[in-house]
Batch of 4 targets.
Target 1
Amino acid sequence: MDLQLKGKVVLVSGGGAGIGSGIVVSLVKEGAVPIILTRSDKPAFKKELDAMGADYEFHLIDLNNTDQIKPIVDDVAKRRGGIYGVVNNAGCNDNKAIEETSWQDFEKSLHGNLTHYYELVRAALPYLIKSKGSVLNITSKTALTGQGKTSAYAAAKGAILGLTREWAAAFLQYEIRVNAIVVSECWTPLYAKWIKTFDDPEARKKVITDKIPFQHRFTTIEEIGDNTVFLLSPVSSHTTGQWVFVDGGYVHLDRALT
C-alpha cells in the first residue's frame, strides 16, 4: 500500500534509537523525510539510513532545553518547504516513586517527558496548518494501568493522552489529525539494559512475556514504527483523536489467559 508520504517532512523526537529509530526506518521505507531530534549522535544508525538511500536530517538537541526547539523547526520548514508531520516520541521512565520524589523532582520529570511534546507541536503548528498535516504522540500503558513507583512518568504519559484528544479537537478547524499510540512492553536497547539489572534476566523476561496475551512476546520497534507511519499518513484520513494500542492485547485482554 502506498501511504502517500513520499517527500513529506516529518519531525521525530528521540528518533535516533529504540522506538524512535523504528519509526524513522518505517518513514524512510515510505519515502518520507524524517527530521530526527536526538540527544546524541548515532553513527551506526546514520550508516543504516545512508545504506537505505534515505533523505534525512539529524539535529542534536537536549529537549529539556525547550527553547531550542522552535529555531530548529523554523529552519527545517524554511529549507525544506514546510512540515507535514510531527512524531512526539522522546522520553524515559525515570521511576520517580512518590515516596522518594520531591515536588521539584516531580516537575523536573514532567518537563523531561512532557513539555517538549507541547513545544514541538506548538512550533510546528503554522506549518502543519499549511500542509493539513498530522501529529502522532507516543505514550505508555502506565497512564492507564499504573505500574507502581513511577508517579511522574505516569502523570506525563496521562497528560499526553489528554493532549492528544485536546489537540484533535482544537485542530479540527485546520484539518490536522492527532492520534496516539500506547506502548506496553516493547523491546528496545533501554529495555534490555533494564532487564540486565535483575539477577536472572531471562527469568524476568519470561515473567513479562507470559503476561502479554498475543504470542507471549514483546512488541517490536518495527511494529510501533509501521503503525505510527500509517496513522500519520493521508491513508488514515478520517482517524483522529484515537489512542491506538499496539501491545499484543496487554491493556485490554485478561492477562490470566492461557
Note: The chain has two domains: 9-184+221-246, 187-218.
Target 2
Amino acid sequence: MDPVISRPGDGERFERSDRTLTVRVDLPGLSVIDISFEESFFVDPHTHDDHVDAFLVLEGEVEFTAGEETVRLGPGSVIAAPPGARHGFRSAGGTARVLNFHAPDAGFVAGIRRYRGD
C-alpha cells in the first residue's frame, strides 16, 4: 500500500445545513475529516469503546467537553479522547474548523456517507 497524500482542496466533501465535512484520509486504521461548522452545530458528550477520537483546531475557538470539564481551545490546540473518554464539542462563537482524527476509523467515514439528515 502507498502513502495517502491529501493536498489543500482535496477530499470528498459533504455539505450539511450547519457544517461541511471533507474526508481527507479514509483508511481502516485512520480517518481524517476536515469539519467546518457554525455556532448552531454541536456534538453532545459521548464515548467510543473502539477508537480514539482526536481534534486539531484549525480556525476559531471550540468548546470541548473533556470528561466532566469544559475547555475552550483555539488554533493549534489538540485534544484526544481515548476509548471510554467522555467528549463532545461546539463552537465557542462564530464559525470554527477542526481536523477530526479517528484511529481506527471504526465506521466513521461510512456513517458520514450514509447520513441522509439535513
Note: The domain at 17-114 is CATH 2.60.120.10 (Jelly Rolls).
Target 3
Amino acid sequence: MIPVPQFSGQTVAVLGLARSGLAAALSLAAGGAEVAAWDDAEARRAEAVAAGVPVSDLSELDWTGCAALVLSPGIPDLYPAPNPIAAAARIADCPIICDVDLLARAKPDARYIGITGTNGKSTTSALVGHILSAAGSPNQVGGNIGVPALELTDIDEAGAYVLELSSYQLERTPSLKPDIAVLLNITPDHLDRHGGIDGYVAAKRMIFDHPGPGGHAIVGVEDGASRGIGLELMVRGAHKIVPISGSARAAGGVYGEAGILIDDMEYKQTTVCDLKPVAALPGTHNWQNAAAAYAVARLQGIDPETIAAAIATFPGLPHRQEIVGAIGSVLYVNDSKATNSQAAAKALDCYDAIYWIAGGKFKEENLDAIQPSFARMRGAYLIGDAAARFEAIIGAAAPVHQCGDLETAVTRAHAAAQDDMAGEGDVGVVLLSPACASFDQFDNFEARGDAFRGLVQALEGATP
C-alpha cells in the first residue's frame, strides 16, 4: 500500500468500496486524511469497517468542508443519469478523482507509462511489464489491469509505474502526467457512460492532457479517431509522437508488416523480429500491441535484441485468446475479454473453421465488424440476452444454434467440431469471443472465461 499524505488533516469522501476504493480509503487514512467512505452494498461496508475504515452516508456529508471525492471508476457520474453524490460534490466545487490520481499525487516524481485504448490495453500493459522485467528495469504494473494503483509498491527513480487506464479512470485523473502515453485504438464502447461517441473519444484523449517533461505519445494509426488525435498532438507540439500499427507502415514509428516487427523510429526500417511464431500474440491487433510495447521499451532505453527476446517469451494473459485446451484437431480458445464486436472481430480474423460461442449483454447497434468472419464459421453457438438478436443479424450467413447457457454451447460446439475435424485433416477452433458483456449470466468476464476453461478441462478429462 502507498500512503497518500497530500490530504493530511482534511476530509476526503470515498464512494465505492470494492478493491480499488478500499485501497484508496486505507491509503488516505494512512496519510492522515479524515476519510468518509460509503458503498451501497452492505457487505462491502462491513468489509471496510473490518479493515478499519469508518463508513458514513455521503448523502448527509457537508461538501463545503470536503477536499475531494474519490469516486470508484465503476460508478457512473453524469451518464446515463447524474449521480446524486457526485452532483452534490460538483455543486460545492469538490474535485472528483479516482485512485490513480491519488497515486500521482503521492508519487509526483515517479516515472509513469500510461496505456489506454478500447482494445488491447491489458495485453500491452502486461507485455511492457514483461519486457521491462526481462531487461532488469524496475517496474510495477497496475490500474485497470487488476491491481489497484495504490496497492502497488514504492519504486526507485530508475523504475516506472505501468498503468492500464480505462476511459472511466482518465476522466478522474487530472494529476497524472505520463512520461509515455499510449493510445492504441478507439472504437465505440461504453457510450452510455460517456453520453455518446464524442464523450468517449474525449475521455480517451485525456491521457495526453498533461504530458510529463519531454513526454512521448505513442498513437495507433489504424482508426480515424486515433489518427485525428495524433494529428491534433502534432499541432499542439507538447509531445514527441511515435505512430504504431499492426498492419500498415507507420513512418517514424513501429509497425507490423505481414507479422514482421519493424522499427522505423529513426527512419531506418530495421527488422526486429518475426511475431508470427509468438503464440500469445496472434493477429494484426496483437502485432499492434507488440509495436506499442516495443516503442515504450525503446523509449525506456532498452536495446532491440533484448526486447525481441522478451516478446518471444511473453506468456499472454488469461481470457485474451488464451488457448485452454487441444483435443484431437480442435483448439479451444478463451477470449472472454472480447466484450465488444471490434474485439471479437480481431480474434475471429485469426482462425479458420470457427465454432463461435457468443452472446451476453450487447452494448452496440450491430455486428458489422464481425460480418466478414461469418463465412469461416462452422457454427455460431449463442448464449445470454443477445442470443435472439445475434441470430436475427447472422441470418443465413452461418449456421446458428441457440444454446442458452455456456455449458450447452461448449458441449454442442465441441461435438460438432470433433465430428467435422476428424475427417478433414484440418484444425478447428472452438472460440469463446462473446462480443458482449457478461453481466447477464456471470459476475464479470473473468468468471465467464474461468467457466469456459473448466468446461474444456472437463472435456479433456473425459476424452480417451
Note: The chain has 15 helices and 19 strands.
Target 4
Amino acid sequence: MTTAVVATYKDAGTIWNVKDDLISTGIPNDAIKIDKEHIKIRVMVPDQTKAEIMEILNRHAPAEIH
C-alpha cells in the first residue's frame, strides 16, 4: 500500500532541503508535493519505506507531521 505523509515546517526554505534529501534517497519527484503557502510537504510512500521517510522528515524539525 501507499501512504501519504505530510509534514509542516516553520521555514519555507526547509521544505526545499527536505525535498532534496528525499530525492537523494530515491523518492521519485512526482511522489513529492510542496505547498509553499502552508509550508508543507506531502510524500506518497510505500508502507515498507514509511519509517525511513519519517526519519528524513523528522531530521528537519517539523512543526507537525502526520
Note: The CA atoms of residues 45 and 51 lie 10 Å apart.
